Fold this sequence. Notes:
seven-stranded mixed sheet, 12 helices, 26 strands, about 30% helix, globular
Amino acid sequence: MNRALQSGAGASQRRRRRLRAWLVIAPTAVAGLVLAGTLSSCRRENYVPQTGSLALLDVPTIRVRITPAGITQADLSTTGGYRLFADGRCVLDSGGPLGKAALRRQGGLWRLGNLSIPGWQLVIAPTDGVLRCGLTAYRGSLRMIPIGADGFAVVNHVDLESYLAGVLPRELYPSWSPQTYHALAIAARTFALYNMRYAAASRDYDVGDDQGWQVYGGFSAETGKSRQAVSRSRGVVLAFGPPGGERIFLPQYSACCGGVVNGAAVIRDVADIPPLRGGQKCQDCHTCPRYRWPTLRVGKGEIAQALCSVYPAAGSLGGVATIRVASTTPYGRAVWLDVVGKNGQAMRLRAEDLRLALLRNGASNGKGLASMNCRIRDVGDAMEFSEGRGFGHGVGLCQWGAQGKAEAGWSGEEILRFYYPGATMFRVY
Ligand SMILES: [Zn+2]
């Protein structure tokens, strides 16, 4: 139990009720997002029983996309009995396990081993035990979403607490402190709930399973430490706002801030709220191998290519002539860049977006640009990134810094209060 939860049980309960109500009924100020949430939840009307769950009652189900979109085959198996549902209708109830079988979609039919199943969306739900997709075991069920003619994506429907038990070991080292796990369990739960609430209406999933979201390894990834951190913080989330009007926010976190916590508004167009404003000095991440990193040069051709992959407008620049830093934070991190084209025109973009473009589409050196907390200089055919600090966007909780604080005796709640100042903790289920 954290201190915020212990102080004034009656008031705390009332706040919890209000926050719970907000989670169901979003504020009118974000009417567009209310619609998104409503449409999104309508898609969950086909009830499929959850099995192998860590949680008991009142825990929401999260939809995690565990494969890229448009795969053409997935190898499925189960350790016990299972049911198959096509568009919500049970088409097979097997008392025994499913041996490894290839799932494909051909000509509007699902083919699972020797079975042919007509239907649009296919769900496999174990009646006991867990199921595997490829080499990874998952709790909950798997929903197959058709994409294009013969492609599909696999989405794991799993209760939020089990999901978190499969996230923490992929985000933190096994040897790290239970207090670091505790802090991240609460931040990660809030991150997931925020995405569940505001998932785009067009999406059949709430989050992906990679670094663009939170890395998730299913049941296979769970450890005793991760299960314990999840169960001890069950239902607790971060919120911010005036008393009685608190709302969850997107509590971003990164590997290593490099010395100063970054502000969310530096990397995204978001409201500037105290928990995500940044600016705290964080020396506890100095043990991170990338607390300081060596000078890196990235060819302008590689930069142009990576930018064009993400921003078609960059093609009109005719190549990159240079990059100028248009603005920085008070602690020296680039915020906006002007990418000057060979045609003399300039394109303004966030420094963090250049890093992400290189990370996802860079040819070689650019993928190694650890953060934008660095000096940026034109050296002829390349741009030079020197005096580099930290790894990742640096917003919110710094994982290496959190571990340093835990080793110094900080509790999980104290760590959260440092990285998200002004935030309150609530138990929402
Ligand atoms: Zn740090």
